[in-house]
């Protein structure tokens, strides 16, 4: 608010406005940055619900199937909400603007929501599941966390062609890891699938960026997944089958996309070789 000084008749700027004006542009949060912070909050709350609703009741011997199911679903839903925030902050940053620290905020938030939260979910699964082994599950969780750390670090310092990610995007990888756990396969196949997802995140397989129609499809799939979780939590008839179907489709998508990408690269390589031979 600007006030006129009665002595000098000059505009007088409040102390708060002076402090705001003195702030460097890099420290001013944009709308995109606020969405990114929502991503981080969802990731932290996912860890909270996994601890208080699943792990603590199990350790105290007060675990109830319904309560564990409800809190596990809440934790996964929060990770899905983090994916929504992560998708929206990129769209908003392209349409409006992001601060100079936007990229750093995005990486740090992704590390919480798509690195720490799913890795911790795997650790807790290893402790509460009947056929799981806690220490081995902890090793698999460390592999997932390191995969996300290395992937985010590589993303920050390398440049790839526009429109693609190199390696499975961390939100997609996190949801695939959680889907593997929720599918309730035997311990060894679950463990191998988790390690496989971690490898895909560190790989050089190209994944398309969710823009335009693909972004809408991604959002629709996220909300469908939330619906499956809600049906499972409320014990709706067929809810468990619906959840397992959604988890299976997530895993199938994670496996099929690299196959398509690899096939496309091989075909492109062959076509280039044919063109080179034809020019000789």
Automatic annotation (TrEMBL):
<keyword id="KW-0594">Phospholipid biosynthesis</keyword>
<feature type="transmembrane region" description="Helical">
    <location>
        <begin position="240"/>
        <end position="261"/>
    </location>
</feature>
<feature type="transmembrane region" description="Helical">
    <location>
        <begin position="111"/>
        <end position="129"/>
    </location>
</feature>
<feature type="transmembrane region" description="Helical">
    <location>
        <begin position="37"/>
        <end position="60"/>
    </location>
</feature>
<dbReference type="GO" id="GO:0003882">
    <property type="term" value="F:CDP-diacylglycerol-serine O-phosphatidyltransferase activity"/>
</dbReference>
<keyword id="KW-0443">Lipid metabolism</keyword>
<protein>
    <recommendedName>
        <fullName>CDP-diacylglycerol--serine O-phosphatidyltransferase</fullName>
        <ecNumber>2.7.8.8</ecNumber>
    </recommendedName>
</protein>
<keyword id="KW-0808">Transferase</keyword>
<keyword id="KW-0444">Lipid biosynthesis</keyword>
<dbReference type="InterPro" id="IPR000462">
    <property type="entry name" value="CDP-OH_P_trans"/>
</dbReference>
<keyword id="KW-0472">Membrane</keyword>
<feature type="transmembrane region" description="Helical">
    <location>
        <begin position="173"/>
        <end position="202"/>
    </location>
</feature>
<feature type="transmembrane region" description="Helical">
    <location>
        <begin position="214"/>
        <end position="234"/>
    </location>
</feature>
<keyword id="KW-1133">Transmembrane helix</keyword>
<keyword id="KW-1208">Phospholipid metabolism</keyword>
<dbReference type="Pfam" id="PF01066">
    <property type="entry name" value="CDP-OH_P_transf"/>
</dbReference>
<dbReference type="InterPro" id="IPR004533">
    <property type="entry name" value="CDP-diaglyc--ser_O-PTrfase"/>
</dbReference>
<keyword id="KW-0812">Transmembrane</keyword>
<feature type="transmembrane region" description="Helical">
    <location>
        <begin position="72"/>
        <end position="91"/>
    </location>
</feature>
<dbReference type="InterPro" id="IPR043130">
    <property type="entry name" value="CDP-OH_PTrfase_TM_dom"/>
</dbReference>
<feature type="transmembrane region" description="Helical">
    <location>
        <begin position="136"/>
        <end position="153"/>
    </location>
</feature>
<comment type="similarity">
    <text>Belongs to the CDP-alcohol phosphatidyltransferase class-I family.</text>
</comment>
<dbReference type="InterPro" id="IPR048254">
    <property type="entry name" value="CDP_ALCOHOL_P_TRANSF_CS"/>
</dbReference>
